[in-house]
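Quick illustration for those who missed Monday's session on complexes.
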Amino acid sequence: MDKLKILMAASEVVPFAKTGGLADVTGALPKALKALGHDVRIVMPRYYAIDKNSFKALDGALGVDMGREGEAWALVLEGMLPDSDIPVYFIDHEAYFGRSGLYEEGGEAYADNYQRFVFFSKAVMQLSKKLHFKPDIIHVNDWHTALIPLLLNTMYAHDSDFENTASVLTIHNLQHQGRFSKDVMEVLGIGWQNFNIYELEDYDGVNLLKGGIVHTDALTTVSPKYSLEIRGPEFDWGLKNVINAHANKLHGILNGIDYDEWNPANDKYIAKNYDLNDLSGKKICKKELQKIFNLPQREDVALIGFVGRLVEQKGISLIAQEIYRLMDLDIQIVLLGAGEKWAEDFFSHISDIHRNKFACYIGYRNDLAHKIEAGSDFFLMPSLFEPCGLNQLYSLSYATLPIVRATGGLDDTIQNYDSLENSGTGFKFYEASGEALYGTIVWAVDIWYNNKDAINMLIQNGMKKHFGWDDTAMVYESVYYQALLHRRNRKKG
Ligand code: ADP
Ligand code: GLC
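Prediction with alpha-D-glucopyranose bound:
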């Protein structure tokens, strides 16, 4: 296949800005695409936390038409994705992005989010022109950049710089769609012809993700199971009809993980490295974890870790509901997360009253996330829905047995322990209930105390799994090809 020019547009990219797995993906997939020989470049906003002085500014400003709000101007900073020669362009606009949060502060979404991401999406197009890049593919991610496929088909439809450009939209989480009032149309500045129920309109407002789904040349989501789930009523967040109407361009592609970052054999954050052949370092990691969290340093107690955004999606209500019963078991729980205030307060309170069994850190700490993966015996992900999930994959490589609810990517990637077949990689439950969560933890912990052979078998199976980006990038490559074909046919039609 010809080498492609790919522009990856995203609102967050590791290591520059991250709130969740989206950033892990946009920081890793480009490297794997580059390794296949493609010319990949990344574009993201320059938030306050990204130090302006570390990057050089391109000459000249970027002008972006913001409809009724007139023209807005941005600077463009250029850097590199670490350990690669992949250029990263930061769109620098003080008023829109010079803030400490990415999308919100103190639990409140920024009121001008739609201006910010309409601006960013248009800036991506303008940047491409400024660089004379003429991309074959613009790969956009989630609602923040979902406008770009529509821009390609409207404002830039006759622009020779995008004559051969196809778009690919990846949905990392369908819950967040970029739903705003129809005021958006006024800053979009493309007239009202796309404001209808088949494109942007959603209950008299604008839905940016919906516009993206309709206009993109190829649509992907981050696991095969989730690509089916979003077509039914339980997980579609109101979009099943739109998704089903465009299902011929939908692909479920499981995320990979970045083994440069998440590998116990060379993880720089953990107390002692270890691998499949010698797991002794894991005991030291467990001890260190217990020490950091002021828990009794017992090797013989089952330690369960949790790392994640404290939001309903992650099943935190199920944990909260069962926590008192769980505290009667001989276990320790370490939780790292930030999010909804009730959950932050609740888990802090539990750590006060069960000091020997439950510990938490409320906040965002990458080093602690690594230490929890390495030091825990189990990793808990009772998500109500999970498009892919990365932590269960990290857990497999860290010899930490996942306890998950069978949904989306969790169901695709974890095989339940089967005592008859002597197989599996973790423990799964199906019903989204506290009872099911509790029962499964009791089951897993019982095996841990009474059947070390089974535990070792599960650990070995998990560590032998490989979820690298190399294979996944080849799947994206074929989707890019299909997107280009779709584009070509659309033009002919
Ligand atoms: P999501 O994107 O829905 O949050 P994923 O499992 O795909 O879920 O990815 C979450 C990523 O964010 C993981 O890399 C995880 O380690 C990280 N993460 C989440 N919360 C925290 C936190 N409080 N501190 C450090 N890392 C976190
Ligand atoms: C989203 C999903 C998560 C997925 C991540 C990366 O935030 O919630 O399941 O792993 O994106 O694709």
